[in-house]
Amino acid sequence: MSKDKSTKDVSKKEKKEKRSEKDGVKKSKKDKKSKLNGDNVAAALEEVTKDEPEIAAVVVKEGSAEVILKPVGALVPFANPLADEKVAKKVLKGVKKAAKNKTLKRGVKEVVKALRKSPLGAPSASGSSIPGIVILAADISPMDVISHIPVLCEDHNVPYIFVTSRAELGAAGNTKRPTSVVMVSEKSGKKDEKVDEEFVEVYKDLLKVVEKEGRNVRI
């Protein structure tokens, strides 16, 4: 009887070990599947991030993948005023609306050109004499790419603000690549194109927010 009992215990133990091995195989398959999902998303982002792969993180959760844009490296020391999370949401919303209404200038060349064309001196009470609102990315390297823009903004009394991520700024501006600076204008550059009334209100709100943040900032 004792031998039969010990034999049964051994067989039970072997069955448990086999089950645990099977579970291990199943888990490894699941992990492999999650990894493949992540690879697929990463492949889809390859065109956007091939030069700067560190701008996006891919997180796989239960078979679904989530892409998180993130700041890259250190922020420039002159990033002032720097939008906090709440203000950044309003700023990026304004950038999205401007891109939709075709009142957005992208990149250093376009923004600097618009700034230099604007008059020197104090703007009118309505803010109509300013070419727009400048939004800069604070995670730019080398910093010399944008270091002259806040100075130009100060000279021409154009309100400006920094956000933490060039990847988020590029995404808000409806571009496939990270963007160092954009300018949100109230009106389109083309005379025939009209902007939505909703955007006019968004622009006014954005102007108030950026002016408030930059009230005590001087270079």
TrEMBL record:
Keyword line: Nucleus, Ribonucleoprotein, RNA-binding
Subcellular location(s) of the protein: Nucleus, Nucleolus
GO cellular component: box H/ACA snoRNP complex
Basic and acidic residues biased stretches: 1-26
Keyword Ribonucleoprotein: yes
All residue ranges annotated as the Ribosomal protein eL8/eL30/eS12/Gadd45 domain in the record: 90-192
Similarity comment: Belongs to the eukaryotic ribosomal protein eL8 family.
Function as written in the Swiss-Prot or TrEMBL entry: Common component of the spliceosome and rRNA processing machinery.
One Pfam family hit: Ribosomal_L7Ae
Region (Disordered): 1-39
GO terms for biological process, alphabetical: mRNA splicing, via spliceosome; ribosome biogenesis; snRNA pseudouridine synthesis
Primary gene name: NHP2
PROSITE patterns, per database record: RIBOSOMAL_L7AE (PS01082)
Gene Ontology MF terms in the entry: RNA binding
UniProt name for this protein: H/ACA ribonucleoprotein complex subunit 2
Gene3D superfamilies xrefs: 3.30.1330.30
